[in-house]
Amino acid sequence: VPGDPAQHLRHVEKDVLIPKIMREKARERCSEQVEDFTKCCKDSGILMVIKCRKENSALKGCLTAYYNDPAFYEECKLEYLKEREEFRKTGIPAKKRLQKLPTSM
């Protein structure tokens, strides 16, 4: 809804907080490439810069595809807005809320 204050984003939200969610989600979705690159680095030691180019390129390609996807940005923005709205209602940050859930079961 245009002009809806619940949808308004401050610069820090647009430039820092939503990209942080995007990075976290993209790393989850590119977990295979993250794993391959991590394994290559562990196995290659000091030569990882040379030896892991293929894995690094695959990981960068996967992450960049998400970072440049407007639909993915929207998905992360909506997730952020939902968390923010919940925080404004409860005063409890999402991370603490999620940690507290299992103990009440």
From TrEMBL:
The keyword Phosphoprotein does not apply. Belongs to the CMC family. InterPro entries: Cyt_c_biogenesis_Cmc1-like. Keywords: Disulfide bond, Mitochondrion. It is found in: Mitochondrion. Pfam families: Cmc1. One of its GO terms (cellular component) is mitochondrion. Its main location: mitochondrion. PANTHER family: COX ASSEMBLY MITOCHONDRIAL PROTEIN, COX ASSEMBLY MITOCHONDRIAL PROTEIN HOMOLOG. The lineage of its organism: Eukaryota, Metazoa, Chordata, Craniata, Vertebrata. This is COX assembly mitochondrial protein.
